[in-house]
Each structure stands twice: as structure tokens, then as C-alpha cells.
Write a structure and sequence with these properties.
N-acetyl-gamma-glutamyl-phosphate reductase activity (chains A, B, C, D), 32% helix, Rossmann fold, homotetramer, 12 helices, AGPR_dimerisation_dom (chains A, B, C, D), 346 residues, cytoplasm (chains A, B, C, D), alpha/beta
Amino acid sequence: MIKAGIIGATGYAGGELVRILTGHKDVEIKWYGSRSYIDKKYAEVYQNMFQIVDDKCMDDNMEALADQVDVIFTATPQGLCASLVNEEILSKVKIVDLSADFRIKDVATYEEWYKIQHPTPQFIPEAVYGLCEINREAVKKARLVANPGCYPTCSTLSIYPLLKEGLIDPGTIIIDAKSGTSGAGRGAKVDNLYCEVNENIKAYGVANHRHTPEIEEQLSYAAGEPVLINFTPHLVPMNRGILITAYASLKKEVSYEEVKAAYDKYYANEKFVRVLEKDVCPQTKWVEGSNYVDVNFKIDPRTKRVIMMGAMDNLVKGAAGQAVQNMNLMFGLKESEGLELVPMFP
Amino acid sequence: MIKAGIIGATGYAGGELVRILTGHKDVEIKWYGSRSYIDKKYAEVYQNMFQIVDDKCMDDNMEALADQVDVIFTATPQGLCASLVNEEILSKVKIVDLSADFRIKDVATYEEWYKIQHPTPQFIPEAVYGLCEINREAVKKARLVANPGCYPTCSTLSIYPLLKEGLIDPGTIIIDAKSGTSGAGRGAKVDNLYCEVNENIKAYGVANHRHTPEIEEQLSYAAGEPVLINFTPHLVPMNRGILITAYASLKKEVSYEEVKAAYDKYYANEKFVRVLEKDVCPQTKWVEGSNYVDVNFKIDPRTKRVIMMGAMDNLVKGAAGQAVQNMNLMFGLKESEGLELVPMFP
Amino acid sequence: MIKAGIIGATGYAGGELVRILTGHKDVEIKWYGSRSYIDKKYAEVYQNMFQIVDDKCMDDNMEALADQVDVIFTATPQGLCASLVNEEILSKVKIVDLSADFRIKDVATYEEWYKIQHPTPQFIPEAVYGLCEINREAVKKARLVANPGCYPTCSTLSIYPLLKEGLIDPGTIIIDAKSGTSGAGRGAKVDNLYCEVNENIKAYGVANHRHTPEIEEQLSYAAGEPVLINFTPHLVPMNRGILITAYASLKKEVSYEEVKAAYDKYYANEKFVRVLEKDVCPQTKWVEGSNYVDVNFKIDPRTKRVIMMGAMDNLVKGAAGQAVQNMNLMFGLKESEGLELVPMFP
Amino acid sequence: MIKAGIIGATGYAGGELVRILTGHKDVEIKWYGSRSYIDKKYAEVYQNMFQIVDDKCMDDNMEALADQVDVIFTATPQGLCASLVNEEILSKVKIVDLSADFRIKDVATYEEWYKIQHPTPQFIPEAVYGLCEINREAVKKARLVANPGCYPTCSTLSIYPLLKEGLIDPGTIIIDAKSGTSGAGRGAKVDNLYCEVNENIKAYGVANHRHTPEIEEQLSYAAGEPVLINFTPHLVPMNRGILITAYASLKKEVSYEEVKAAYDKYYANEKFVRVLEKDVCPQTKWVEGSNYVDVNFKIDPRTKRVIMMGAMDNLVKGAAGQAVQNMNLMFGLKESEGLELVPMFP
């Protein structure tokens, strides 16, 4: 039985980790860290867990935690994990960090976009970017996994095959993303009140959202050259789900079958990436509550562009589910253990 | 491995049966019945099941089905199951009927409220009303289980202990119910369009909803005398969830502890009924996707009434989940097998 | 041109006052009071008012305001209006108070339910309860109008005729209310976040909501005797709208026509109360954005009860619209001036 | 008093026409055409109009109508208006056609995208494309106005100034659009049921939506050369509102002020187009129920692109509001008459 600790267990991603790990047959949660709710029963913060979780919330003490558990999940704002981690801790436990601290290899880029100084850049090189479908082998050997951001996961998986296969022009990529509101977290802000979000849609972070350099870095690896993109997220009146609609110019005339083959080359054997059938557009509701990413594409012969689409649950494949997928790989378990979640519809 | 067939697999309750049975380790679905979609791939009707279910939809042939499976679930409108069932079929398979056909013992009452003639009243006496927490032992021995309606499940479980213990006056019960829209089914009607339901709430079926006699019958058993109630359902702009708020006059002055003890007497050992802590009101979101019913109550000393509240997922404990719970009992499996679904929040 | 000042102009009710008064041909808003946003442009707080309102927010200075305007609307939490008002101010301006401070005639009841001491009980006797349809003549002569609460407006108007005509037993009234989320205000609280309210319904304030004594007082006037009720509000995932479903025992056997006549007696000439046609249940969406209250009823001969229903927009007839209706009466304008708002559907 | 007739009065756009014209002081509706509901009271189809509209629905008889009214609005599917119109009718009444029949000048393009034969192409040349802000003078003289589509209105107004001023490369325009569900109409289809749309987002009509050639034609006029675009609409779980996010490459390095000046050049005196302040992103909720289009932009110096955004209410500026704006121009009324609708928030 793997003993797990969660730092930041009362945010939405933390709550989803608890939901998933509770159903994981090889894991036992030993530490529900939540600085805001210390000593409060976890099930009083999330009443859905009444009679399922009996523990109380505890402080974010990574040192103490490292002695008691085998794996630590940090579902906290950027800066926290990086400020707590050290060599001694890493020698004792594996860490899956759901924050952005170790996702970006170039520390200057991180500091520029996140406006904070990185306290422990020495661990960046060894951190593995935990996009399992791309970096599976490296994840298996990692002590420290940087769990990808929600938008980067959906964007990268939707675009990766065409870029890798050289079918699209890297300089023309535009990603228009739409996210449910749980992505904004559980902080009490007027902008996230029901009446402000409901019956409303808006773009935000236009041309400066922090997930931009993370996506660019991953796409650059695929392209084999530096990639700059436009990335525009939108807030949608729904709890869960991310849909990305990406545009790029085709490098040459291609058929449906050629593009489909590119996706199949990378995903035919991937359980959690479903390449939909021709002309079926991904919908976020079809993956809700599950670890799936549904992707598909459409060629526009008029404009010689391809439209790439991807849908996933931002709290599962976009956060907690992928974190558990990484944990499974790190501990040599079956990759889908605890993640055989059937999407809930409606 | 139990072989299961579903008649009406493409309605919302049928879809939920597929979701739950897909995750049930002892069951294999052999027949996806759907007259409307014969020969269409099931996963084209419910794209969430893409790469999970490969079968095609089949006709509603109960005779053929009886030879191939161990249990049949009928998730169809009233009248269909009753018109298909016969002694030969019942001698071959067990049936869990999610329609109202076998829920009401008095056939005249059924025919009056449902405005149809019952084609096979001879099977009504043996049918067991599948409210597992109340009729567990009878369910275990049944060939034919009448799976309770969504409102009756939530209403009966919320009120039962106080009526059984003689704490409330049976003549004063009023049930004000609120349901998500999946309860209205997947038929294409203007009234159920997004724009008609969203940002709106209304009562419907006032003083004549068909679940009224079903609730009255169950409460009458608890009271030991005939019970008449007022029952008013409302349509709420959400997909899933039923909340009932019930009112009754207390027969005598009682303390919080006495009423709590009444609930605990019946539910302390029930996995799927959670009696919440003092002053915590049930919320439908806390049970979404799970088989739980959350109940609680509040005494109003000013009016000498008690307010009883219950929340559940109408498609799970109110339909497919309870059907699987019944199947587990009928086949001697662990009652919660396949139903250890952690509620999803948010 | 009537000069108006608003204290609390940046809450949802205050915002609705601005929306309505902006379209009122006899009124000019001179003061947008908002302690939280002093010196900020009003249209930056509510961007819908961009290029419509150019003013900045100002402090809540009632003394200064009294010298500059003809009428003050206080759309603030309880206690504020009562603490600011004095004889000098009342000699200069008329006040429509949207808070609860002057609604309840018995100061002890107010203090018990609101848990605060009333600072100026001497003004309670002269304050007129501004339910226009009931107290029209008194409102016309008032200096100080207590604008009714949202739930009390909808509840009282739905039940009043039957109680006044002696058709129902005052001791049996139960009001089950459902409200959109704007009723909870614009304060940043976790409970009102999008993800907490969406796809969810719950009761709150069970047996102790502060609108209870206000409703009881008004119903007592109608009944001619003290009335105790059960009142249970619920939070519904929608922005606007209140629906109440009320239950009472009939004193004698009555026909549909008799009950209809009772409603028509009081409302046939009322522009803003619409008694719907037989068997049509009120829906909140049908009154959204307007000052209408839609009411109807259903007799249940089985239980000898009547179910009374009412629907309105909580921010219009339940707050700002009724406040303007009161202002119109106080200044001798046409009662519906500025309120000829056609409900928006969908 | 202008007498108006509506063909297709019971669709959502038709209903919105009724709402707006009911509040228009110079117009009287004489004909509520609705083939589906002939002889049914209009207020029974749209209960929000109870006691506001007393008329019954009538047939779609344009000949009869032409003798009785001054202006006909056709809010019907494509093909209907074109099949009914003739010279005699146009000699008697003015027509505002809300369908696509007369929007596209090249009949072959119309027939290719709409898959129907145009029955009266002889009237296409005289029809004026009723985008008031662009074609105001022509509209004033028109007998037949083609009211623009919802997506084309929002797209064109958001992009027009930059294209007209030569700031962006016409070959690089990508429009990613998001619409509320009322745009899909009131037809009873499974895809538009509450449970299918709620908690979900999807793209549809990818690379082949019918509004594409309409947008391209308008943008071509602005660019002075043929323009091909990518246009991807998405269905958002909300009733009303369209948001477009458009991308284009800048032809040269420009400052915020230069781009702002381009927008101001065309819109500074336009009542219904609001160019928001720097860094404020349009939100659909800020224009709900009103005739406004809110536009803004953001320059991305990294990619040398500009992101253009526009938000409006699809049923008002995107349909009925713009139709009334056109009617006002055609009859020499104040352009904003009946359209001084303050956006409703929340």
C-alpha cells in the first residue's frame, strides 16, 4: 500500500485527488494538508466525503510528511512546492507537483511570466514534465514530476502529432481555449461568484496567460525549433471541462487519412487519448469525470489550415487524474490503476 | 460473470446503467436494447462510451434476451415491461423493472393514475418493491423487482423513520420536491430545451403527479394506516439531483436527540443513507454521481413541525444505482459491488 | 425631474435600481453611493453601464445627500439606514429603505431575528410597509417607506387574497421558497462561488430565516389574527427569480371559481400582479427583468388543501422595481412609470 | 403609428421582436404570424406576454399582410422570405428579412452553402445588407433589407476598422466564435435539450458553417479584395450572447493608440458600438438584453498579431434589435427609438 500525502487538499484539484485516490486500490491517503482548515474535519470542508474520509486537515509540513509517506502531491499555488523541497526530502519521497514550479526548464522564462523568483532552480533539471503519453519512460524513473497545467495538457496532446510529423507550420499556431470555472480555484473572489460567471463568457489573460510559455516549450520539442503561439483562454459557465480549438497552416496538401494516420501513430495504443471518428467534434461533457482527452481535427481546403480540437476534464486529465497517472508510472503500477473512470453523462 | 441485458439502454437511466455496469466487476452487458437506434453503435448515441462500449443497439426482444442473459433491466416507459413479461421469461431470468408497472400493489390505483390498463396484473403480487434499505430480505428472494421511482426513493427514505416511530402525524405530510432535468428523459420536447429550462424554475404535476400514490403506499406501510400527502415536484436548471423538503406536524414535543435516534435506528448501518450532522442541510451536489441519499431534519418548536430533507442523484440511487443494488442482492453479491462511487464535487 | 440618491449602489439591488432609474423619464440619479468603491467610476464596477453612466461612486453620506436629492434609496445591509436616518433628514427627503430596518412594527421581534439593536425605533411607527398593492394609499403619504423583502413580497401577494377572504386555515400555512443566487448579494463568499452553486440545490435558514417574522406580520394583518408559518428558502442555480410554493388547508370545500374570484377581487385591476389561467403554473423565466408577480393556485380535493404559487424577479418586484413603484406613488407619478418592462424570454 | 407584421413570431428571434416592438412608441404589431400555432393565443406560446399581448397567431400570408401593414419582419428559416416576396408586395410594404435569403450578393455562393435554389434572385441586387453602422445611408432608402446574421454582425463590426485601415493582413483572419443556445432556435431536437447543452461546450459547423461566406463578403468590402477566413462557432451553455475572438497578423508594428484610433474613427459616434477601455475584455453579460456590441483588442508584440474581441446579445443586435434599428432608419425615425435598452446584470 502506497502512503500518500496531499499538500493543498482543500482546493478543487486537491479535492479531486482525494476523490480519485479514495478509489485507488493501492493507495492510502495519510495526510490531508490544508493550511486554511487545520484541525477541521476534511469532510466538513467537502461534505461529499462525509463517512468516506474521517481525517482532519493538517498543516503543510513537508519535512514531517516526508517521513510518513511514499509520495507527496502538492496542489498549491506556484512557489510553494519549490520553496519546501530539498535534497533530503527528495531522497525520502517522490513528489508530484501540480503547480508550475518545475514545468519550465528555463528559469528566466518562469520568473518572467510568474513574477516570482524561483527558490530552488537546482531541481529544475531533474524534474520530469509529466505528460505521460509523451514522457512515459522518463516519468517512470523520476523522483520529482512536474504535473502539466490543464491548458498545456489539452493543447499539447491535440497538436503534438501534426507538429512532430511536420504537417503544420509552427509559426502559425493559434490556440483558442475554453475552460469551466473550477480552473479558477476555490478562492472567494467577486469575479468567480455564480452571478458573475453564469450566463456569461469572456476571454481573459489575452496574450499574457502564464500557460503560454509552457505550451510553447512543449510544442518546441515537437517541432524541433522554437515555437511562438497565440493562446487565449475563455471562462465558460460550467464547472468542469476544457475545450481547445487550435488553428495552423498546413505545410502541404494532405488528405484526411494522412492526418488521421499522424494522430493514430501516437495515440492508437494510448488508453487515455481517444481520436474520435471523422467529423465528430469533441465535447467536454463526453469526458467529464474521466481521465480521457478526446481529440479530432478538420482540414479546411479553402484556407489550407487544419483545425485541431481537444476536450478533457480540467480536474482529472488536467490535474488530479494525470497526477495519479504519473504516480502509477513512478511506482511501477498499472498506468490506469484507479483511473478507469467512465465519463458521466449527462 | 452475470450476463445482463438492458431494454431502453439509450434513455438517461439506461445510459447510467451502462456507466455503472461497465465498472461492475461481476457483470457483463450482453444486450443494449434501444428500439429507436437499432443497429447503431451504442457509442455513437452516447459518445462518452467511445472505445469503452463497442456493441450496437438491438431491438427490445425480451424472449430472445431471456435465453441469453441472467438479468434484464427494463428502463422504459410504463406499460412496456408489463406487456412483455410472462411466466416463461420469469422462469429463465431475473427482472429489475425501472418503470412504474409493478410498484403499486393496487392495480386500480395504478390504472387510475397512469391512465393505462395493466396487461399482466397477475405478476404484481410477487413483484418486490426494491427499496433495498426497507425490503432487503424480500429483494434477495425476488424474481421480479419493481425499482422505485426517483421521487419516492428520496421521499420515503427521508420520512420513513419518523413515521415508523410514530413521531409525526401522517395526515399532515407535505413533500415539496425539486429535480434536475435528466428526470424528464431524453425525448425531444420544447419544454425540455436548454433555453426553456435554464434560468427558470417551475412546479409541475401539481396535485396530480404519478409518483404520489407510490409514495403514499410506502408511507402507509410505515404508518400502519392509509396516508394521503401533498406532493409537488419542481424542475430545476441542473442535470442531476433530487432534493425533497418535507413537512409534518410532530405528535409530541421531541428533542433533536430523539429524532436523530429515530434516523440512526434505521440508517446507522446503511452504507448508502447518510444522516448528516446537526444543522447541515443536504445538497444535491454532495451526492452527485453516487448512490448516496443524504438526509437530515430540523425541528421547528414555534410551529411544532419537523422539516425533513433528503438529497440524492436521481439517475443513481433514484434509478440505475438502486437497480444495480437490487441486482446485487438478488444474485447474492456484496450489496455495494460496483456502487462504491465517490460523489463528484464540483 | 426628481433627483435621486442611492446608498449601496454597487450591490445587485443597487445595480438594478440604476438600471431601472436610468430608463425612468422623470428621474435623474445624482449620487451613486458605495463605500467600497469610492472615487471609482460606476461603470468600472458594472461594465454594462459603460457609456451610460459616467459618474463616480461616492461615500454613504446621508446628510450631504439629503441636501442634494429628493429621494434616497438605501440598498444596504440591515442596520445602516436606521443608523443614518434622523428627523432633519426626513424633513428634507423621502426615503425608500430596501433593508429590513423599518419593515417590522414590533422592535423586539426585529432585534430578536436580526440580532442587532435598532438604533432609531422612534421612526418605526411612521414607516409604511411598501407593498404597493396592499398599502397603496399609505405609501402615497409616506416620508419613509420600508420596501418589502423579496420572499415576503412574493409570499404575501400569493397568499393574501385567500387569507383575507377566510378560505384557508391560518395555522396550516407552509411556504417553500426557491430563489436565484443574486438574492445572496455580491459579497465574495465561497458558498456563492459559481462551482458551489451550479448543478446544486439546497435549503438554507431552515426554521430560522429572517424573512419569517416579516411574512408572518403581513399575513397576520390579512388573517386578523396572529399567524405562525413554516418558511424554507432554497438556493437555485440561476441568477434571478423567486418561486414560492405555499400550502394551506381549506376551511371548507370550494370550487376553482370561488378561489379564482378571491384572487380576482384583489388583483383584477392590478397591473403588476397577473393571476394566470387555470392549470398554468408560474415560471420565474416568464417575469424575468420585469415588475410582474405571476400567481396561481391548485385545489387538491384529496387532501383538502390548496397549493398557492407565485413567481417574480427578486431584483425587480422583489427589490428595485418595487422601490421605484413606491417612489412613483410617493411623488404622485403614474405608478408604472419606468416599470413598463417586458419580461425577457429566453 | 407604423403597423408591423411578423412572419415567424414564435421563434426566439420573433419573440424578441415582439418584446422590443411592444416597447416601441411608434409601432403597433398587427400580425403575429406563426404557421405552427395558428389560432392559438400568442401569450399561450410565450407566457411572458400574458396580459401584454392579446392577439392570436395567424398564418404566414404575405399577400394579405402587405395590405394591412407598413413593414413586414420575416423571422423564418432561409428560403421562406425569398419564396413569398414579389414586386407587388414590395410596392406596398417594406421588408426586413431576418433570414439569409438576401444577404449574399452572389447567388451561386448562397446556393452552394445553403443547398437550396434561390427562388427570387432578381431582388438580390436591390436588397441592402442591414449592418446599420456600415450601410446606414443605403438602409434609409431601402425597400428590402437583409438583416445580417448574428455571427456576421459581431464578427464584421469587430474586425472592420482594422481591415478598412489596412492594419491587418486579410489572408490571416481566424474567427473563433462562441454563442448561447438561443441561436439554435426553438425546434425540439435532442442536441438542444437542457441536459445535452448544460455543463458542455463543443465546436460545430467546423470549416463549413453557413455564416462563413456572409462574413467573407463583408470583410472583402472592407479589405477591397477577396477575403477567406476560418470561422469556428461553439455552443456555450447560456441562453443569450455571442462572443467572437478574432486573430490576424499585423501588417506593420503598431501602437495601442494607433489601433484604438482606428476603432474610434468608425465608432466614436456610434451609439450601439462601444469600444471598451484598454485591457478590458468584452463579456456577453454586459450587453445582455441590449442592442450594444462591445469591442476591444489586444496587440501581441511577440507574435505580431492582434486579437480582436466582440460581444453582443445574439437575439438583439444579432437579430431583432438590429431589425428594429433598420426599420427605424427605413422610416426616418430616430435610429435608437425603442432600443434604449439598458443591459441587464446579473
